[in-house]
Amino acid sequence: MKDSKDKPEIDEIGCLEAINGLYAYLDGEMNDPESIAKFEHHLEHCQACYSRTELESALGELIRKSAKGKAPEKLQNRLRKLIDGI
Ligand SMILES: [Zn+2]
Fold it and tell me: How far is the CA of 49 from the centre of ligand 1 (A)?
C-alpha cells in the first residue's frame, strides 16, 4: 500500500508481550520508540489489557510516583491520556 508510507504500520503484539513490557514501560526503561509505539498501540486497541486491574493499579502507582517528580513529564502526559481513555 502506498498510503502506508507516512504512517508505518505497527506490528501487533500479543497481550502477554504487552503485559511483559508494562513494567519496563512504567519504569521508563523502554527506550526503543518502536517498542513504546507497539505497546501503546496494543493498549489502545485491546480492551482486555485496557481494563486489567493490574494495569490500572500499576498506572495509578506510577502517577503517584509522578507526583513526586520521579517520572518524566512526557511519560506522565502519556499515562494521563491512557488513563482518561479507560
Ligand atoms: Zn491485550
Answer: 4
Q: How far is the CA of 73 from the centre of ligand 1 (A)?
A: 26
H helical segments located in 13-72: 15-26, 33-45, 47-50, 53-67
On whether the CB atoms of residues 15 and 46 are closer than 8 A, the answer is: yes
pLDDT tens for each residue of 10-40: 788 998 888 788 778 877 888 899 999 998 8
Residue spans of the domains in the chain: they are: 12-84
* pTM (whole model) above 0.90: no
Residues measured by CB to lie within 5 Å of ligand 1, the ion: 15, 46, 48-49
Q: Ligand 1: distance of its center to the CA of 13 in Å? A: 8
SS3 state at 9: coil
